[in-house]
């Protein structure tokens, strides 16, 4: 059944049916959730298209919107025998997306990127449905680069991001309201941290968490002298032998109280994924970035970190020199210079990203 029943949306020209796609990792889904919420509040009907095996369905489930899983092949930059199988999955996914869009008849598609999005973007192009995409990193990822010829507008995080064959608009990344409304006192209460003790938040992430997690744990004896350490280490990566260690709290993943935990943090150590970096900059948290090396990524985190470091917003510790000694020294230096970092981060332009993206969706729907 098509979802184009007339509804007043509050955004001129934006029809009530919008399809959103993205996935492969949480970073390609979570920033789309505030956009979903804004569209639902405006009266739109929203459908999410993702992979059949990724985290997308679980992440969007709390919003109660229809989820559609399609076949998709991972886009790799290296040789793998799986590339041959995935080369067959991609055209199957394009056909599935084309059929789905023919049934739903959306006014516009919003793509958050990741290999899941590519078949949907191409299917939308074949159906003549305009596509607005979003790129978080300083340089577009492979899926967004391949999809650029089929996209109407590319929304980006940073003013220096460049792309070909597409209109580029700087919107920043949508942040969840509960993150922006975080309360430090409430966060400390939930964590059980002492009011007089500074809090060090360490975010290991999901991909490439092992090295950072091991280094933090090796440095705990020295870090706990000065800080309560909150360690978001990734699913399945909790060290049971450290669960009773005073001043050290491990979390596999944080959802509802993430804003409170960030608000309670005095300093942050994390990877240099674009979404995390954007959060630290928006919330003004002094941070030490440990970007994933090129052996574990396309180098996007190195580029993100170098960009932020060049503007005086971030302190960076390359993984090649990461060990317990350099980590402790880096945290001490960050603490000493935290006031300067906070002051420089005030120059980072904070945008109402969700509203800007919804506005671009409206424009694309009108033009389409």
Characterise the protein shown here.
The longest helix is centred in the first third of the chain and has 23 residues. Strand 5, helix 5 and strand 6 form a beta-alpha-beta unit. The protein has a seven-stranded parallel β-sheet with strand order 3-2-1-4-5-6-7, with helices on both faces. 40% of the residues lie in helices and 15% in strands. Helix 1 packs across helix 15 and helix 3 packs across helix 4. The chain contains 15 helices and 13 strands. By secondary structure, it is an alpha/beta fold. The two termini are 21 Å apart.
Q: Element order, helices and strands?
A: EHEHEHEHEHEEHHEHHEEHEHEHEHHH
Coarse structural class: alpha/beta
Note the total helix count.
15
The largest β sheet comes out as: 7 strands, parallel
The geometry reads as elongated
Q: Which radius of gyration do the C-alpha atoms yield?
A: 21 Å
Share in helix: 25-40%
């Amino acid at each position: 059944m098509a979802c184009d029943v007339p509804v007043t949306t509050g955004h001129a020209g934006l029809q009530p049916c919008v399809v959103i796609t993205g996935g492969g990792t949480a970073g390609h889904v979570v920033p789309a959730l505030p956009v979903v919420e804004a569209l639902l509040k405006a009266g739109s009907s929203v459908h999410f298209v993702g992979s059949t095996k990724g985290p997308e369905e679980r992440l969007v489930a709390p919003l109660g919107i229809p989820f559609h899983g399609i076949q998709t092949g991972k886009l790799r930059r290296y040789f793998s025998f799986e590339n041959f199988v995935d080369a067959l999955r991609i055209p199957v996914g394009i056909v599935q997306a084309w059929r789905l869009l023919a049934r739903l008849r959306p006014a516009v598609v919003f793509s958050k990127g990741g290999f899941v999005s590519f078949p949907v973007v191409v299917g939308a192009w074949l159906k003549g449905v305009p596509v607005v995409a979003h790129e978080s990193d300083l340089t577009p990822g492979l899926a967004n680069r391949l999809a650029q010829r089929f996209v109407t507008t590319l929304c980006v995080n940073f003013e220096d991001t460049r792309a070909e064959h597409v209109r580029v608009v700087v919107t920043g990344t949508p942040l969840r309201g509960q993150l922006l409304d975080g309360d430090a006192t409430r966060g400390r209460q939930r964590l059980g941290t002492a009011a007089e003790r500074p809090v060090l938040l360490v975010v290991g992430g999901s991909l490439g968490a092992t090295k950072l997690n091991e280094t933090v744990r090796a440095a705990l004896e020295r870090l706990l002298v000065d800080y309560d350490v909150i360690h978001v280490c990734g699913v399945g990566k909790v060290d049971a032998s450290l669960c009773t260690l005073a001043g050290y709290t491990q979390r596999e993943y944080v959802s509802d109280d993430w804003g409170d935990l960030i608000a309670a943090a005095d300093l942050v150590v994390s990877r240099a994924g674009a979404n995390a970096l954007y959060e630290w900059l928006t919330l003004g948290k002094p941070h030490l970035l440990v970007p994933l090396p090129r052996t574990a990524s396309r180098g996007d985190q190195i580029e993100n970190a170098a960009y932020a470091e060049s503007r005086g917003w971030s302190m960076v510790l390359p993984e090649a020199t990461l060990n317990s000694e350099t980590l402790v020294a880096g945290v001490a230096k960050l603490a000493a210079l935290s006031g300067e970092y906070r002051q420089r981060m005030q120059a980072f332009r904070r945008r109402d990203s969700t509203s800007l993206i919804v506005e671009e969706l409206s424009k694309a729907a009108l033009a389409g």
